[in-house]
# Entry
Amino acid sequence: MSEKFLSLKNIEKRFPILGKEDYVAVTDVNLEIKQNEIISIIGHSGCGKSTLLNMISGLDAQTSGDILLENRHVKGPGPERAVVFQNHSLLPWLSVYQNIEMAVKKVMPELSSAELRERVEKFVSMVNLEHAKDKLPGEISGGMKQRVGIARALSIKPKVLLMDEPFGALDSLTRANLQEHLMRIQQNVKNTVIIITHDIDEAVLLSDRVIMMTNGPHATIGEILEVNLPRPRNRVELQSNPEYIRCREAILSFLYEKFAKDDE
Amino acid sequence: MKYEMIKKIVLPFLVFLLILQVWSSIAMSVHNFPTPSDTYVAAFGGVNANGEAMTGVLTDPFYVNNKDDKGIFWQIVESLKRVFAGFVLAILIGVPLGLFVGMSKNAQYALNPFIQIFKPVSPLAWLPLLLFIFQDINLTAISTIFITSIWPIIINTALGVKSVSEDYMNVAKVLRFSPMEKIVQIILPVSVPYIFTGMRLSLGIAWLVIVAAEMLTGGIGIGFWIWDEYNNLNYHNIIIGIIVVGLIGFMLDIIMGKIADYFDYTKKGRAK
Ligand SMILES: Nc1ncnc2c1ncn2[C@@H]1O[C@H](COP(=O)(O)OP(=O)(O)OP(=O)(O)O)[C@@H](O)[C@H]1O
Ligand SMILES: [Mg+2]
# Structure
């Protein structure tokens, strides 16, 4: 396992504003992410979490600084950094199966049609959607759509899975269900995952490390919390686990005491 | 529900009676204006008010006396051929142009003023110019249809491209789609309903234009036929022509609508 897997070095993002000084959204971000690590990024709304993730995905370019994946500079978006979008972004005219197939076909053109089918089926069943594979996104629930989004992102064998509030639009029961899905998948096939969240319990439950961001402008990494909880994790048992309680409190105190935001 | 059905039949019927009433009173006040019953006889055959036996225009639509004297069916076929030629040409050129305008800001800046200027020009204004260029009835009619019906296709196709959400484009970027893959796999599926809306408007315009165009170019076709009947003082046939033109236009619109629904992903699945 390489220690230097994904590195962010002195990342800064400025947004030019007409007739004014640039808006410095994030600055001075330095972070090393290990292979197969799950990290979450938490911070108040508007602090620059999405901005940071978009630079890693390449959908937006940093103003300065370097992003290296396996010692190679990241330039522009690419399938080795798959994204699960908040609003799932499934193509509504393609079925569940076809949405995944489209991605696999493009990224692995060398697959024979039998191998292609096998791979798509595998990822459909990974998120337990065999029964809905021929349905259109408009015909399935929000939680199911997000599961397809995850399956599509994982099906292209990314080096990093980037998730921007993937469960943000879902009710808390569905949300818990998806967290379980994600943990179960991670148990079987290890992935490197960066997940943005607003939810403290979600951050602790899912991650190996929680990155806490200060408020913008000039937002940066405030603290990094190691979550030393064994896996598999059980959300019910965790409630009374001292380490879980410690982590929760650390995040709570960061967000509501050290970097409280009063304009919300 | 049953009550609704009855209303859907009875109410139009009442309006129909009202139209007949208005028509009859116009026929009484305008000298030589055909009455509804005269027109009926002219359409379906029988004995008219003057006691003359007539073959109906619609009961004998297939006759061919000579090159210039054919039944109404052949007139319509001739018009439809021109409409489709112009319409298909408008699609073949309008859709790519619309994609181009929708995808490139520069193309939009460059072309939009001209689209806006040419769009409202009446087909009758183009006609003399095109007749002068082509010196041929068919080519003139087809090119008039082309030039007046291409605008809604361009505009709606561009609108469809604009409606492609940023999210889909992000998916395409992450998967590193080539420009062609973006068009085929994302932009076209999103734009298809818009393109069909444009095509439907365009076909409507084409059918409007053909009647006017043929009146001026002469020869054969439903537009010319109506004009010819006017010159022959067969005023009842003008009314028959109007009704036939209306019915065919209505049918074309229904067919286009059905085709559009078939290709519109937003109309699929949800109803299940
Ligand atoms: N294109 C842009 N132009 C100018 N400012 C921008 C742009 N995109 C983001 N910003 C600003 O950068 C800051 C960070 O935005 P970002 O979307 O990354 O926040 P976030 O942490 O993801 O918030 P949320 O939790 O609400 O999603 C915000 O103040 C925002 O207004
Ligand atoms: Mg965000």
About this structure: The interface with chain B takes residues 57-59, 76-79, 81-83, 85, 87, 89, 91-93, 102-103, 106-107, 135-136, 138-139, 156 of chain A (CB under 8 Å). The radius of gyration of chain A is 19 Å.
